[in-house]
Amino acid sequence: MSEFVRTKRSTVIRAPKKACYDRDEIYAVLDEALVSQVGFVADGQPFVTPVNHWRIGDNLYFHGSSAGRRIKIMEAGADLCVSATLLDGLVFARSAMHHGMNFRSVMIFGRARLVEDEGEKLAALKALIEHLAPGRWAEVRPPSAAEMKVTKVLVMPLAEASAKLRSGPPLDDEDDYALSAWAGEVPLRQAFDPPISDPRLPAGVEVPGYLPRDEN
Amino acid sequence: MSEFVRTKRSTVIRAPKKACYDRDEIYAVLDEALVSQVGFVADGQPFVTPVNHWRIGDNLYFHGSSAGRRIKIMEAGADLCVSATLLDGLVFARSAMHHGMNFRSVMIFGRARLVEDEGEKLAALKALIEHLAPGRWAEVRPPSAAEMKVTKVLVMPLAEASAKLRSGPPLDDEDDYALSAWAGEVPLRQAFDPPISDPRLPAGVEVPGYLPRDEN
Hints:
216 residues; seven-stranded antiparallel β-sheet; four-stranded antiparallel β-sheet; 12 strands; 18% helix; globular
């Protein structure tokens, strides 16, 4: 277990009891969240856009079209803030103001750089596909030279990060525990429904076992 | 059906076919997403933090502790970018680079102001609780004067917004439809699991019917 060094911008100010700087915990959130939100500044205006991220070791990866504005800004070395949030439940307390959510949320600060080495770039794209469905890469057509040209891959070292975590039942004021309102948690999770085959799929192609599925 | 006026910052540049400026579509995403990500700039650095938002008509609401940094920055009239994303599925194509996701994502630009009128503030907090579970407000202890004092409510007019939407099967290169790899969509949704009662709940308190639940 290793901890991220706390910096001024990465230190959790509000509700420090919920704060966490542990690498393993933060990586677990990043690996489970399929999408994060990348913040950057352009002409003084904040922009926040959803992005499909993936992780290899201590690096976070992104990809996008060479023509995209966000990729250009990220590639130029802009300061970034990446936020990923997993919702684990709604928390119902006996008083209105103690309602809330159970969640795991991470914030990453830093800058990204373009992956220029073709081998590193291809390995990163393979890791993205394998992260979604282990075994998938071997079965699909790999990127063509033209596709590689119009796709950029960016890497952001995971060096400055923090998390906020909440779990468990509501925390009511002591006097309110005598009230008769129901209190507790309604758990939330991301669920996968059964796969829907492409209408153009030839007859006889089976749904592969490597697709993500619910364990429940 | 009315459309948001497109501004320079709200106009979708990449993949304009996925763009949408329709108020009803954008409001549906905001109402379904339990959490959004608020971006702001502090000392030139972008920050992105998760927030529980809710909507009343053409206004988006947030709340937080009076002591919070984000609330202070928002209250001061900083430019904001609010992003909310719903994941609807993973898209598996016959080629690596056409893999993707089905999603509904909105971006809101603007500024927030403090809700100072106590009646408006209480009505907004009630709307938050009722949005999570219609009927809940009447059963819980309302905010005390002290709680109202340490809680701030902010409102952001919904005037500048856009959405990006993707749904349906993968779109492969025509030549790739002959390949034998499985292709299609794995639908994703936010699922509610059965409520967990607070361990301190007195015996005989039933789980109320107004809690959010899965229809499936």
